[in-house]
Amino acid sequence: MCRSSNKRSKPKGGGSISKLFEPRVNGQIRARDVRLIDFDGTQLGIKSINEALNLAQQRGIDLIEIAPTALPPVCKIVDYAKFRYEREKKLKEARKKQKAGHLKEIRIRPKIGDHDFSIKLEHIRQFLSLKDKVRVTVMFRGREVEHAELGMRLIDRAKEALATAASVEQDARLEGNRLTLLLTPKK
Predict the structure, then answer these.
(1) Whose CA is closest to 160, among 104, 118, 101?
(2) What are the tens digits of pLDDT across the range 128-153?
(3) Distance between CA 182 and CA 103 in Å, rounded?
(4) How far apart are CA 63 and CA 38, in angstroms?
(5) pTM to 2 decimal places
(6) 109 in Cβ contact with 120 (< 8 Å)
(7) Which of 40, 11, 47 is nearest to 28 (CA)?
(8) How many CA atoms lie within 13 A of 186 on its CB side?
(9) Alpha carbon distance 73, 24 (integer Å)
(10) Helix and strand tally (H, E) in the chain?
(11) Calpha distance 77→35 (Å, rounded)
C-alpha cells in the first residue's frame, strides 16, 4: 500500500536553514488565490495561483509563499537561493547577538582544605562576574557518600560566601555520588 506524505521536500545544498519554517515554493503552494508581491517589493494585488506562477516563470525566478496564514496567503516573486541566503544571514546575525548562557562547573571534594576552598570560591566569583552560570559539584568517593552532610556543609558555606554575587537557581541535590548546586549571577 502506497501512502503519499505531506512532508515538504528539503532544499538541496546542506545549508543550516531553520527547520522551523520552510516556505512553500512554486508548485508546493496550495492556495487558489494569492496576494502577490514583485521582486522589487511592489504589490501586484490578488492573483490566481496560475497567474502568479506564470509571472514568476516569465521572469525566470521562483514564487515563494511568505505568509501562509494570511488570507489570501502572501507570495513573493524572488530567487529562492537568494531568499535562503538572506534568511540564513539574518539568523546567523541574530545568533551572534545572543549571549549563550555558558555553564561552568567547579568540582570539589568533601575533605577540601580551607585555602583550596577559598580559591574555588574565587573562581566561582570570576565566572559569575562574566555572567556565566556555575554548577558546584561535591564529588564523593566510595563510602564518603554515606556522609553527605559534609558535602551539604560545603554547599551551605559556598551559598553564604557567594550570597552577594549569586542566586540559587537549583538547590543542592544528591545524584549518585555527586551533590550539585546551580548558581546564577545576580542582576
Answers:
(1) 118
(2) 888 889 999 999 998 888 888 999 99
(3) 9
(4) 9
(5) 0.49
(6) no
(7) 11
(8) 8
(9) 11
(10) 4, 8
(11) 11
- Reported as half-sphere exposure (CB side, CA atoms, 13 A), residue 27 has a value of 1
Q: Does domain 26-95 bear CATH number 3.10.20.80?
A: yes
Name the class of domain 103-185.
Answer: alpha beta
The three cell numbers of residue 134 are: 556555575
pLDDT in tens, 81-131: 888 888 889 888 888 776 666 889 999 999 999 999 999 999 999 998 888
Domain extent listing, the chain: 26-95, 103-185
- What's at 178, amino acid-wise? R
Report how far apart, in Å, the C-alpha atoms of 18 and of each of 42, 62, 94 are: 27, 20, 12
Residue with cell 524572488: 78
Q: Dihedral sign for Cα 67, 68, 74, 79, please.
A: positive
